[in-house]
Amino acid sequence: MPHNGSRYYLHAYGTASVESLNNGNFELDDSSRSGRPVEVDLDRLKQLIEDDPRLTTRCLAEKLGCSHTTVETYLNKLGKTWKYGVWIPHKLSAHQLQYRIDIYLDLLTSHRNYE
């Protein structure tokens, strides 16, 4: 009967990891797996967005040969957000930033007044 440490390891990492260790595989690196590629050509993604900013993540995924969630991840890394049916950079103007600061300060002072 395995001791508590072995049971914990089995519960946390699953039987595949335990079998791998029992077979003498002590590699720490992840082995390659089949499935959809997680790498996306960023230049091609940028070009597709510039050509047609109304493309959905599913259409982009179909063109790039990956999942739509992978496309969403890379679009977020590029600083793009979906607004009004178009992918645009998520940057606020100086006026918008100041407006947000003013609202936050108003909310803080009104909260302090109620305490």
From TrEMBL:
Q: What domain of life is recorded for the organism?
A: Eukaryota
Q: Which Gene3D superfamilies match?
A: Winged helix-like DNA-binding domain superfamily/Winged helix DNA-binding domain
A single GO molecular function, which one?
single-stranded DNA binding
Q: Where are the transmembrane segments?
A: none
Q: Which InterPro entries match?
A: Transposase-MT_Hybrid (IPR052709), WH-like_DNA-bd_sf (IPR036388)
List the GO terms this entry assigns under cellular component, sorted alphabetically: condensed chromosome; nucleus; site of double-strand break
Q: Name one GO biological process term.
A: DNA double-strand break processing
Protein's name according to its UniProt entry: Transposase
